[in-house]
Amino acid sequence: MDVREQLLIDGRWVPARSGAEFKTYDPATGEPLGTVADAGAADVDAAVAAARQALTDPAWKALVPAARARLLWKVADLIEQHADELAELETRDQGQSLGVAKTVSLTMAAEVFRYYAGWCTKIEGKNSAVSIPNTMHYTRREPVGVCALITPWNFPLMIAAWKLAPALACGNTVILKPAEQTPLSTVFLARLCVEAGFPPGVVNCLTGGPEAGKALTEHADVDKVSFTGSTAVGKQIVVAASGNLKRVTLELGGKAPSVIARDADIDAAVAGNLQGALLNSGQVCAAYTRFFVDSKRVDEFTDKIAAAASALPIGPGMSPETVIGPLASPEHADHVERLVNAGVAEGAQLVTGGSRVGGELSGGNFFAPTVFSGVRDDMTIAREEIFGPVLSILSYDDADELAARANDTDYGLAACIWTKDLELAHNLAASIHAGSVFVNMLPFLDPAAPWGGFGSSGWGREMSSNAIDEFTETKGVWVNLG
Questions:
Q1: Catalytic: which of 251, 384, 385, 470?
Q2: Can you give the residue ranges of the Aldehyde dehydrogenase domain (predicted)?
């Protein structure tokens, strides 16, 4: 594979104005996949200007909601028509297994576009019963404007879709900016938008690194930033957005607790937590990472999940039997290794894994599934987001302490409870500080369910009707009836 990609600005594919390019690499082999244009501040200015112009162009502004819906539906159809090509691109550029690319990333991307195609004709205002005589008041839902959509490297296609679809459904114009580590599937998605018939300037796509992201978030003519990524970068975006008080949606890090109660079906909890922790090699914001296990069951749970984790096939995502693929980059593999070493140094008991994978896989960014037991709440591995295949097992004796311990984190994205006791399940779900709580199940997502977190896990919600709120402004109209 030797791909060469340019920038999409105002309906045209162009090189970066500086001529700069960068390479993207296969994380399974370390080999280059292709060369991509590296956008700078001048390219950001051009893309923002094109999006601003398209916002008022009758070709987009006057397009009736049903026509917008057909465009979104067409993108969904095109995603499915190119499913094999897109899935391979996602796997080679990001590392996720081909099965995950097809059944999670591709499926979700298409369904998100169809879900928001349905919303195009249902974005409504309302009449308000004001108490001023002879006065009518009604509201309009209008586009926010020019939206910068900045996506991460763990699920590039899927997360681009769940930002792009609602933004377009609401009539905004956008600049997509994928992570520089995994740009290829997002560029492909932008091509599908052009093929579907979106007018020039409505969808723009800039590949590049931190310079392009910084220029977008600071740009005075960008009205909204939607960002998924690290909490540290999210905080920088909040500062950058203050220049013109642009609206911001942030989906950031997580450190999801999973509670395994004394009455839990341990075999079901092992199977569910293994998948919930190790999907995409643990590179999931909602991955289960802190396991609070009743002290009467902790040895059984530890032995079974460690045995299951150590038996998982490791290899390139293109291999049909692979469950654990590579981490997305050498830098991220270094990050995971540093935190695993911290766990050992601080006294956690390494049950399995704990190192990079060598041999024929040594050219890639592979890290063995790792299980720690005897972890304390104050250890680094129990507090910092690892974003890799690392499971930390903590025990508890008193169920009354669970909520406080689960909430002893800056994050609040997701949590899980494994129990047959409905009273415990509902009470804990109400007490745990997280945007989504899953009971006896994996951390599934659906376009109809809101997604986002508390605290350092972000601001606002994505998907469901919440995304319509995030991508529209409410205007009140007052009419004197005389």
A1: 251
A2: 13-476
